[in-house]
Every structure is written in structure tokens, then in C-alpha cells.
């Protein structure tokens, strides 16, 4: 095994910093997309529930029935909201992993400097 050199650690840190910038941009976009999807779903769900109640004039509509109807009618929006939330979570985990890698590289760089003293 070739021992790690100062230059190889520095290059790894540079790569990790570039990856961190890229992941930060992706995470920001994922957060915005998840927020939009959630707002779309919740707005449509509420509108569908109210519409169902309004269109059922003269019939007894229970809260669970209205909820079930709204759930069935907005299933694709909910699915998209859940997908976007999962992507946001995955991007955050990737960013956290990159942050940990940078901390390890910083520690390694510090140890390398001390060893050379």
C-alpha cells in the first residue's frame, strides 16, 4: 500500500468540496420540489373533500367518507408528494455523507501535518 500523501488528501478534499457544492444544489432543488408537491397535494385534497361534501347535498356525508373520496381522487398527487419527499431525504443523506467525508479528510490532513512535524 502506498501511504497517503498530503497532495492526495488535498485532492480528495477538493473533490469532496466540489461534490458537496453539487449535492447542496441538488438538495435545494429537491426541497423546493417536495414543498411544491406537498402544497399541490394538500390543496387538491382539501378542495376535493369540500367539493364532495358540496355535491352531496341532501345526503348524509360522514367525515370518513369525504376523506376516503378525497384520498382516492388525489392519489397521484399524494404519490408524487411522497416520491419528492423521499428524493429530498436521499439528497440530504448524500449531503450528510459528503460532510462526514470532509470531516474525516480534515482530520486525516491534520494528523498528516502533525506526523511531519
Attribute tags:
single chain, mainly alpha, 3 helices, 87% helix, 117 residues
Describe the structure.
This protein has 117 residues and is an all-alpha fold. The protein is 87% helix and 0% strand. The chain has three helices and no strands. It has helices at residues 6-54, 63-73, 75-116. The longest helix is centred in the first third of the chain and has 49 residues, at 6-54.
Alpha-carbon distance between the termini?
A: 23 Å
In one word, what is the shape? rod-shaped
User: Main β-sheet, in a few words?
Assistant: none
Alpha-carbon Rg, integer: 25 Å
- The percent of residues in helical segments reads over 70%
Number of strands: 0
What structural category do the secondary elements indicate?
mainly alpha
Mean pLDDT, rounded to whole units? 93
N to C succession of SSEs? HHH
Query: Low-confidence runs (pLDDT<50, min 5 residues)?
Result: none
Number of helices: 3
Beta percentage is under 5%
Q: What's the topology here?
A:
Layout lengths: L5 H49 L8 H11 L1 H42 L1
Helix pairs in contact: 1-2, 1-3
